[in-house]
Design goal:
This protein is α+β, with helices and mostly antiparallel strands. 21% of the residues lie in helices and 34% in strands. The chain is built from two helices and eleven strands. The chain has a five-stranded antiparallel β-sheet with strand order 5-6-3-9-10. A hairpin with a 5-residue loop joins β1 and β2. It is elongated. The termini are far apart.
Length: 205
């Protein structure tokens, strides 16, 4: 029996938003067994439950639910787990696509986030007593026989661009200038419109 990840990649490989694609080779031990892929993500990665629901994935997620927190506001051990159920996938190969997003970090803290391929396993109805890979999983609670085949481990990296503190003054001055010019333009246009309306009103009188 062999059920493993045979391809693991990110597209794009640079930026804050990407898609993690894993091609899984399936060879079920029994027709009643379900296939699962267990991903472990570092705290620098955001997984949005709503995106997974929109993709109609059957999943369980354990991790930080606040999508706005930067990296430095998280617990140092705040890794997350994502369990994907590929029960309905009966072809010999299936592709699992997961949207991933990088959290903001402090300026000058260059990031290269390494993502590992998932741990894949089959879960079958009770036929003995075997430990579950995840003790508090609702999806695995009714299953008792877990088979974790040996597999090669794949890694892929997401390069995240970060700001430089040396550019802070230029960014602040540029932002201030744009806001000021925009405000002055709005004042100018408002005065022009008010003058035109007043002129029309005087002509009507």
């Amino acid at each position: 029996m062999s059920s493993t990840a045979i391809s693991h990649s990110l597209q794009p490989q640079r930026g804050f938003h990407s898609t993690l694609s894993t091609i899984l080779a399936l060879n079920p031990p029994d027709s009643v067994c379900s296939f699962f892929a267990l991903y472990t993500f570092p705290r620098t990665i955001i997984i949005d439950r709503h995106e997974l629901i929109n993709r109609r994935l059957s999943f369980e997620f354990w991790g930080e639910s606040n999508l706005e927190l930067p990296v430095f506001a998280l617990d140092q051990t705040a890794n997350s787990l994502l369990l994907i159920n590929v029960t309905n996938a009966r072809p010999k190969q299936v592709t699992v696509d997961i949207p991933v997003h990088a959290r903001y970090d402090e300026p000058d803290m260059a990031q290269s986030i390494t993502l590992s391929s998932p741990t894949c396993f089959w879960a079958c109805p009770p036929s003995g007593v075997y430990p579950s890979p995840i003790a508090n999983s609702a999806m695995l609670s009714s299953l008792a026989h877990f088979s974790v085949p040996s597999a090669s481990s794949y890694h892929t990296s997401l390069r995240v661009p970060v700001a430089s503190r040396r550019d802070l003054f230029a960014v602040e001055m540029g932002t201030t200038t744009v806001i000021l010019v925009s405000f002055l333009w709005l004042v100018y246009r408002s005065c022009k419109v008010a003058t035109a309306l007043q002129s029309c009103h005087l002509k009507e009188q």
